[in-house]
Amino acid sequence: MSTYLLRRLFQALVLLLIVSAVGFSILHLAPGGPLSQFAAGGEMTQADLDRIARDMGLDRPLPVQYAEWLWHMAQGDWGRSYRDQQPVLHIIVAHLGATLELMLTSTLIAMALGSWIGILGAMRRYSLFDSLATIGAMIAVSIPTFWFGLVVIWLFSVTLGWLPAGNRYTVGDGSWLNQLHHLIAPSMVLALVSTAVWSRYMRSSMLDVINQDYIRTARSKGIPERRILFRHTVRNALLPMITIAGLQLPTLLSGALVTETIFTWPGMGRLFLDSINYRDYPVVMGILMFTAVLVLLGSLVADLLYGLADPRIRLA
Amino acid sequence: MTDATGPKLRPSMPRLGRRDMLALGGAALAAWGGAASSAARAQGAKPAKPAGQVVIGLSQEPTVFNPLMPSIEVDQGIALNVFNPLWLADPEANLMPQLAVEVPSVENGGISEGGLLWKVKLREGVVWHDGAPFTAEDVKFTLELINTSGFRARTRQGHSLVRDIQVLGPHEISWRMEKAFSPYLSLLAETFIVPKHILSKAEDPNTAPFNNAPVGTGPFRWGERRPGEHLTLVANERYFGEGPYLERAVFKYIPDLTALYTQLRTGQIDATVGVGILANFYEEARKNPTLHVVTVPSNSLEVIMPNLGMPALADKAVRQALYTSINKQAILDTIYYGLPKPTESITPQQYWAYNPDLPKQEYDLAKASKLLDDAGWRRAGRGVRQKDGVRLEFTVSTTSGNALREQVQQLMQQDWLQIGASMKINNMPAAVIWGDFYTRSKFETLLVGTNFVTGNDPDMSTRFNSGAIPVKGGAGGNYMQYQNAKVDELMLAAQTSFDRAERKRLYSEVQVILRDELPVLPIFQYAPVEGIKKGINGFRPNINYKSNTWNMHTWSWAA
Amino acid sequence: MIPAQNPAAAAAPVLRAAPRRRLRNPALRRFCRHRLAVFGACAVTLLTLLCIAAPPLLPYSDTFIDIRARFTPPGGSSAHLLGTDQLGRDMLSRLLMAGRISLAVGFSAMLISMVIGVCVGLVAGYYRGVLGTVLMRFVDAMLCFPSIFLLLAVSAFIEPSVSSIILLIACTSWMEVARIVEGQIRALRERDFTLAAHAIGAGDARIMFRELLPNAVAPIVVAATLNVAHAILAESYISFLGYGIQPPTPSWGNMLDNAQTYLESAPWLAILPGAMIALAVTSFNFIGDGLRDALDPRMEGR
Question: Which residue stretches of chain B have pLDDT < 50?
């Protein structure tokens, strides 16, 4: 077990190194730089721009800049944002809460709703409900998230006026009710795809279990159908879902990025997009490493939990 | 308008000049008139104590709070409220003393020896937000910090000429200029004075804690900032000037313009300055009974900027033909809903140096074709003209994600094809456009909104001087690579003169030459739409600053 | 963000009709029993045919600007069946021309990503060892990036044209395919027929392409179909992020991008291209689903 963990951790480190090298090169080689935004207005002269680029060390060779970044990173120094000079980790943590709030809420919605649809679909296979759920799931994953977000805003905020069009809360009103009100639309949009995915996986997992011998045995022993469903089928069907939850993380992060942009949600996704647009290299790299760690951790935890939950799986 | 970095961000800032203020009074915006003529009317009804808050929606996030460091317009909007310059330009470009007691001039003896010696008397009794007194040492420190090597000063334009700063007394300072440079007066009107007693102790002024908790002398003190969400300023009750009448001002970051407008309409924000309301929402917003909606002019111009390093575009006849075949009326009336006004000059119409007598562009495809015929451009394959083996084809780039600009491009494309010029659209995100693509003159032509002024001074040397071409080793912003000795000479003469009439004559002549040679093709001057809730008095747009929060200390809620 | 691939992995057919007549090919028979897949196939075929054949028959070209007729709502004018856009261009004509581009992007990006993914997966699965590990770790690393980062970063390098958009999408969507193929090959490699091929002295390339690949074709075909759906969706996201196909060439993605501003005053500008994307992508997902069933009998009924 511990050798397994060690090996996984070593692999993760190698992966992080690749991710950072690839990310750093792509980012720095891409046209435009952190000073682009100041060239637009026309007030800063080229002499000013060149001088500041020199001061920021942007004129040095790329490998040197990468080595420096890596060296600082190894010491736990994530660097400072080019925009507000704040430490990167501080900025990420400041934006993390909003993203977690959104992601957790939508994951909960997706799990609850998705599992329910999946279970019901599997129990009543080929029923009208099952068919509609299938079609609905297919459509849900087929429409662009940003388009769906716009339609939601147009319908619920602009036309009906039921929900706020964006933001995490009304300034000056910090009550949880107010926050909840703001959370509905974006979490709904973000949950759409996850719910669809979750319901399909759940349905398929349920069908797997239903056909297992031990369910048949249970049934033949005369255990009530309800009990079979909840004590045996659902419980076992949920097992593989642990992995799915872990692997869904990158998709969820990307989805959060789009959702946050549309709903002006002050989270990491929007920070990431802004930082890319401003070419705020330290922050982009920071977020990249942060999410990479999160993703790797997600899959590791999923594997470990799976091993714990299902004794048939041996981690070696 | 999408010029700054970010998909939906705009740098061109709305300001309102005197002319438009008058127009406003006469317009059907009766209720608005109340707020616009603020100074007079609102005086009577001002609260004795700061009260209430205003939530201002911004489409870009303010992140730079050291007012001397590279910043964008929303950052200036904050700096204008936390700090003070020595003097401030009002909407009519009159300089009003702030931290100085009077604005130095040749007449009052503040500027002498042919513009080389400057002497400034400072206001007494001003205190920093932390209670420390403001003195001449702070001004000296500020000017020196800007020129300190290693400090990322936004610009050293003008400042680099300052020599021999002397503190003559606690509230009097003088310095010498290496050469006479009249736009420096304007540049100082946007140079905010920073506290010596805090920043001189910082290890590295680039990353000092001060940069995220600024201490100024302005009408509002730093409150709190939640990155990515909003920042709050609170009233400085010890402010030396008028006001403030508001207890709090909240600047909220809403990156999407449609969302910004929606929030203004649903009342989640009280005002939007800067980017404001998209043109297509203007009509609807005007009908909203709770809103004052104003078009405010900006000193930004929408232009086609050709790269004169390209053989086809280096030909003046080509530029004139392209200009003649731009359907300005369709662009302005239809795509921009008649909000901005066409312009022929690169100088904003509200500036004193503006030359109103330039020939008016007329949309005439036949005339454009004739111009090209006469210049020897003959139609070749697929109707595209050619001369000496050079085909008349080029790309037009702009920042992507701007629906209106893309429409303009496609309209031009259709017209230009008819006169035998083949244009392709090549739009890219702002960070790419404004990188080397722009500053190293790698573009063919750009459709951009930018300005050709020096602060609130009409000087356009950094944009048109032949010594300002970065790709040829210059230090300015002459990215189209324009060279004209006569223009250089006129601009230099205007820079060293402190006589406004004389300068106006010189700049007028420059405008005539630029209108003829068209190093940029002017389309219109921006007139963004800003909205503010009725009930807030004191809002008064100012073309000379990048944010109309410049006078927020005089804003107040109607009782 | 572009989740098209995920659900499909678990999605299962549901709707089925009683077999009407017996088809020879069992796979084809299974596919035809899958009503949604048949619907998807019909929709895609019809859409493709319309996009190819119809535009020349329409009264307006997709790029003809008539600024006076801008914002004509659908049905608002007999000349413009689906109305006009912000420059007065015919929506129907633009939708169909955009379909050509979007479908072409979808298919081409799929082809390229399949080639990359299959090659990487084949090599990694067959050779394993250091080469296989390095390749698959690289795949893992690429999958660590949020797909939006890859799209944003890579697109900053290229001039936005149809072909570069295709490359861009292909370059960011081959990893899943590589994983699937690698898994398949790894399993097949130990099977008797591979060992037999080795025994008679077949070369590596021959074994890979003649023996292993044909046996792994079922999941590849399914992945390919889903990849088309993914690519069409990705194109719209790229437009949303500002790197899309340049005007005046229409694509469903860039039509949608330009329409955001007018969501309220002219909602058809957003609804029509959005619906086309949804229709096309859903259809491809249905087909992929049906194919999975048809090609893998063991999956039946799941």
Answer: 1-43
